[in-house]
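We treat protein structure as text, and this decision shapes the records that our systems exchange. We quote a single record here, exactly as it is kept in our systems:
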Amino acid sequence: MKSRTLLSQLVTDAIELTRAHGLGQAPEAKAVVRQALTNDSFQLLTLTRIRERCRRFHVPVVNHLLRRAQTMVYGIEIGNDVELGEGVYFVHPIGIVIGGNAKVGNRVRFMGNNTVGTAKENGYPTIEDDVTVGAGARILGPIRVGKGAVIGANSVVVRDVPAGAVVTGIPGVARMPGAAAGAQKGG
């Protein structure tokens, strides 16, 4: 992740959240300010960015207190080594757990009650940009979820997902939109 000032990162997060809400590629300043003031996702990203700075500058007590505040107030657990991209959108943050050293791309949308982690302590997922993670979905292990993929509600993903695929089921099966029923790939 690029080294930027906290303010620069937060401005970018607010712009990307506004885009994630479908308010345009070049959103108006009023829409960006509204997102920054009223969106729980922005507040969570702010806490996460401050926690990142505390770890970078070796201020562990503040990081720990902010992590607890995130969990108590928003019901979300974001691990210390998680990398969150710009404008990550937590539609319903309650019950979301992102652990270990998972990497989450820009404008990823979490619908709620999601787990991004490991099942066997063998590594953590990488989720690329513009992915939607449906309510209750689990993404487990050292896998990659490709750009623009959609993970269906309550799916359990334990294999790589191609860009643009739609994953459903337990275990998740990836399908390309418009592909014939026989052209499936495990997800």
